[in-house]
Specification:
The chain is an alpha/beta fold. The protein folds into 2 domains: 2-153, 3-Layer(aba) Sandwich (Rossmann fold), CATH 3.40.50; 166-274, no CATH class. It is 50% helix and 11% strand. A 6-stranded parallel beta sheet has the order 3-2-1-4-5-6, sandwiched between helices. Helix 4 (126-141) links the parallel strand 5 (110-114) and strand 6. Helix 3 packs parallel to helix 4, helix 6 runs parallel beside helix 8 and helix 7 packs antiparallel against helix 8. The chain is elongated, with a radius of gyration of 25 Å.
Length: 275
């Protein structure tokens, strides 16, 4: 088969193309940055083409003669807007629509589009809303298309060798004594080992003769720190910065916690000197 893979130089694309090439399929990969596709150039059945997939004429030339088209294009970060910014609109809505139209014009028998888990035109984030609108655009363009078929995939977080998700935390773990975590449901980030403990230590130091009150406030500070991390992590995703951004939120909170602890210790030393 002759297969066009759009977005093939990314993490998923590199692994998919390697498998397809192993099956002796002829793979066409458009890119405007040859350097990103250097790993693919050694595969015998893969051809890299310098092309702009956002141009309809160029897209027609790429699609013509293909048995199937795979669209893997996706971004995690983009400019803000309502319901989403122009970056998300270009990559997640307009491009899938253009690809669907080109497939229909050129008689391609199969379109496979990778969307995302939670894709919904009324979703909570710009990422989800744009992915949802992209799916709707494909369905609209290919409605009643009897000559071919299409498949939409909705993966969750995809990880593996060379990904940009788990490897981010691996890099952070090498340098940070406390590792920020991104939990899918609560976005529990670095507050567990940052602001919460820093406030707890300071509180217990200055309230040594009021242990009951200190314990109550200690627990309240711990819960407040968890809530702050969850809220900030969720806002980072809502603003279109992607799930991986919660790790950097955790880093910021960890540094903030250390700053609070350092300032508290400095104030305590100053009070002891004056006393």
């Amino acid at each position: 088969m002759r297969i066009l893979v759009i977005g093939g130089t990314g993490f998923i694309g590199r692994h998919l193309i390697a498998r397809l090439s192993g099956g002796q399929h002829q793979i066409l990969v458009p890119t405007r940055r040859y350097g990103q596709g250097r790993e693919l150039q050694i595969l015998p059945t893969v051809t890299l083409v310098d092309s702009d997939v956002h141009d309809d004429d160029a897209l027609d030339r790429l699609v013509r003669g293909c048995d199937a088209v795979v669209n893997l294009v996706g971004i995690l970060h983009g400019n803000a807007g309502r319901p989403y910014g122009s970056d998300f609109a270009k990559a997640h809505v307009h491009l899938p629509q253009r690809i669907a139209r080109a497939c229909r014009r050129q008689g391609v028998r199969r379109l496979l589009h990778v969307s995302a888990l939670g894709a919904d035109s009324s979703g909570a984030s710009m990422y989800q809303r744009s992915k949802g609108d992209g799916e709707a655009a494909i369905k609209q363009e290919l409605a009643g298309w009897r000559e071919g078929g299409w498949t939409l995939f909705r993966p969750s977080v995809v990880f593996g060798p060379d990904d940009n998700f788990t490897n981010l935390f691996a890099r952070l773990a090498r340098w940070l004594p406390v590792l920020p975590l991104a939990v899918a449901s609560t976005f529990l980030v670095g507050t567990l080992g940052a602001l919460g403990p820093a406030l707890q230590v300071r509180l217990m130091d200055v309230a040594g003769e009021a242990q009951t009150l200190a314990a109550a406030l200690n627990h309240s500070a711990f819960n407040a720190a968890n809530a702050l991390g969850a809220w900030l992590g969720g806002m980072a995703v809502l603003w279109g910065w992607g799930w991986a951004s919660t790790g950097w939120v955790g880093v910021a909170l960890a540094l903030g916690g250390l700053a609070v602890f350092a300032a508290s210790a400095a104030l305590q030393r100053r009070a002891l000197v004056r006393g």
